[in-house]
Amino acid sequence: MNLTSEFYHALIVCISAIFTQNILLTYFLGLCPFIGSSREIKSAIGLGAAVIFVMTCTCALNWLVYHYVLVPFHLEFFRFIMFIIVIAAFVQFVEMAIDRLSPSLYQRLGVFLPLITVNCAILGAALFMVIRDYGFIVTVGYGLGSGTGWFMAIVLMANIRSRLHNDAIPKGLQGAGITLIIVGIMALAFIGFTGVLAGR
Amino acid sequence: MIVTLLISVLIISAIAAALALLLVIAEYFFANYGQCTLTINKEKNVTVEGGSSLLSALASQKIFIPSACGGKGTCGLCKVKVLDGAGPLLPTEEPYLSQEEIKTSFRLSCQVKVRKDLKIEIPEELFNIKQYNCKCEEIRDLIHDIKLFRFRLVEPSDIKYIPGQFMQLLAPAYEKSKEDVYRAYSIASDPADKSIIDFIIRLVPGGICTTYCFNYLKVGDEAKMNGPYGQFRLTDTDAEMIWIAGGSGIAPFVSMLYHMKNTGSRRKTTFYFGANKTKELFLLDEMKQFEQELPNFKFVPVVYKPDENEKWNGETGLVTEAAARNNKNLADTEGCLCGSPGLINASIKVLKELGMKEEKIFYDKFA
After folding, report:
1. Would you list the DSSP string of A129-160?
2. Is residue A198 a part of any domain in this protein?
3. What is the pLDDT of residue B192?
4. Considering the domain boundaries, does residue B18 fall inside one?
């Protein structure tokens, strides 16, 4: 496959990861921080931006580790542990780096970065890229798209929830309950995108 | 098979070690802020190692900012004015600061990280706060769940505090708690006796520090505390006062009474003290003594529901009801309250209904 078609493929995969195969609304990964942090638009944007950044970088890193370390030694079965270690170390590293280099960015992302280590969407994206046998450029596109899809989902949810503040919600459904129902409806709505792109 | 196992273990360990090494190196480069200078109240300069929180940096210089949660950002007590160098306000601080405080650049010192030179302002009296090593000298049962603990100060051997202030007592790690915990207790001793600190403590079921005091602390044991903290105190006026307390909330008033006795105060003071049963009243002899020594002090115990077969001819019902029964117009009276949030909120409501001005109501609310 030449470079141009590789980039084209990456673009398709990226857009499909945002809309038709949204990691949150189709695969329901990363649901825990999604419900926890979607109360305010401001923190949703912060967390979402951190996810985009970390997901793109760790997908690329994990692709390199997988193809240049695990595959040559026939250790593919170790990818779960390996990916988690890489993600955790990367998040730690980035946190330290931006704390020092850009305090203002750290203020915006800082609280959310450590949270992301345990976000299963990050690990999920890395595992999907292996299952689907993506190349490096496509993997970067996929990471970017998955992150953007997650970002979009949480910002949409935060907007919806901020509108729910003044509504009378039955007591048992307040908080996580109503949020899960809304995610379900959002997921149904996103099924409408299926078929727009046959992205794989 | 064995080769695969060995290789996999080796590879994984090697990568993990490489990543750990990378992090250690990164930490060395990134987290090394060098020496930073803190300018306190424009005059005093101290040099601290950068990278830690302002609260712990100050503590390393023996300047103790009050903090009930130990720097976790949950109590909101460690407010300090940071004039320069703190960076933007963090989302973790916002809930604990009022608009007014944000404008006048107050910050939570446990959340502000020392990255460069800082200019801060600390109330003078906080310099008075020290860490004290002391010895538990006496443990006296007052009622079934309230005890009086007397500590003799060893190093430093004397303390200066304003009656109404509190100390933070250290409960060292023990079976029920894995880490050192500080908890705040009002001082209940005579301020003239500078080497003694009394606490009146109620056993809180499941409480880390109270359980430590009740079940582990023995007479003769060493203990650590720091302080004094707090703004709860008597005013300098001669205005009539109403005090309301329940349970261990009596503590700051005991200290205040000693102080009034020492200074020969003639302020008109009525102390409403609430209990559920007559057997939950305590320090009655001491209160009688104070009534004899202070010409205008009156102690009014209020029992919520005395047992039918016992003789109780004092006040009954809620302590707030008793205060309302005996007072008509409190426009010129000051109120001092100490106890649970429920008691304080109810008392403020009643006192305001009786005409007391809000700015004349002072209280110490148990967190």
Report:
1. HHHTT--HHHHHHHHHHHHHHHHHHHHHHHHH
2. no
3. 92
4. no
